[in-house]
Design brief:
The radius of gyration is 18 Å and the shape is globular. Helices cover 35% and strands 24% of the residues. The protein is of the alpha/beta class. A six-stranded mixed beta sheet has the order 6-7-10-3-11-12, sandwiched between helices. α3 packs across α5 and α5 runs antiparallel to α6. Bound molecules: adenosine-5'-diphosphate and magnesium ion. Adenosine-5'-diphosphate binds next to β2 and α1.
Length: 262
């Protein structure tokens, strides 16, 4: 048996005359952090939506723990252990943060873990504490800054105890301080372990990012998309020095792929 946790095989998606995703294939191993980069319009978000079951591929398969989940609705994927955050946060603004997180816990994945009704509130608090937002647990989500909203999204996702967490541009629109706070949460997730009632051991991540700098520091592997196709797949140092990647991603000639992004 291979260690493979997750894979997409030959995934394709067309919107009218536009081939947004074409024959994309990659794997994610348990506990691995994979970055997905590429210029705007490359097809990254479409891949995320196909992985989360928010749309169906025209061709190809999504495989989790060896099972074909291509036809699964989103909720079933969450129950299996895949959860994600969106490029644009959409919290329930009038509700306090704790309620925003608790909603995610009303699913069979969490209920299966026992003592659910008694622990759901504490577990939501653990998730907020994990991302550094527990002080605001009772504040309405409408009061949050952009950076706090991103962290709320992560709290909501990790509360379900995922095995694969998919983050679509978690750092977009954040200032430096917010970026650092969020990066700390991601690194803490990566480290894994027990945190209150949460177990973050072995959680793999697929992180879509436009900016390279943060990703370079966290990712084990980087995938590069360009015009719907997978252009490169390898360790960060290798990928940023790949002449094709340098050319399409930075629009420059080889040599300096990482510098400008830090
Ligand atoms: N629902 C949709 N309907 C039509 N075109 C879409 C839709 N979603 C994305 N596209 C198009 O598909 C291409 C890839 O988009 P997207 O996956 O959002 O790219 P990225 O996230 O890499 O910026 C873009 O040209 C975009 O305009
Ligand atoms: Mg996108």
């Amino acid at each position: 048996m291979s260690r493979q946790l997750f894979a997409v095989n030959d995934l394709s998606k067309r919107f009218g005359g536009l081939q947004a995703v074409r024959g994309v294939t990659f794997e994610v191993q348990p506990n691995e952090i994979v970055g997905l980069i590429g210029p705007n319009g490359a097809g990254k978000t479409t891949v995320v939506r196909l992985i989360m079951g928010l749309m169906r591929p025209d061709a190809g398969r999504v495989v989790f723990r060896g099972e074909d989940i291509t036809g699964d609705p989103t909720w079933r994927r969450v129950v299996r252990g895949i959860t994600g955050t969106f490029q644009n946060s959409r919290p329930m603004k009038r509700l306090p943060l704790i309620a925003n997180v608790m909603v995610a816990l009303y699913n069979p994945r969490v209920a299966r873990q026992g003592e659910w009704v008694k622990t759901v509130e504490a577990r939501a608090l653990d998730a907020l504490e994990f991302v550094g937002l527990s002080d605001l647990a009772l504040s309405p989500a409408s009061e949050l800054s952009q950076g706090d909203l991103k962290r709320l999204e992560i709290a909501r996702a990790i509360a379900t105890g995922p095995d694969l967490l998919v983050l679509d541009e978690p750092f977009a629109g954040l200032n430096q301080v917010e970026t650092r706070l969020l990066a700390t949460s991601v690194r803490r997730l990566r480290k894994g372990g027990r945190f209150g009632r949460l177990h973050t051991e072995g959680c793999a991540m697929l992180i879509v990012e436009h900016k390279l700098s943060e990703l370079m520091r966290i990712a084990d592997r980087i995938l590069v998309m360009h015009f719907g196709e997978l252009l490169a797949d390898g360790p960060p140092e290798e990928v940023v020095n790949d002449p094709r990647v340098v050319e399409v991603y930075t629009g420059r000639t080889q040599g300096q792929a990482t510098q400008e992004t830090t």
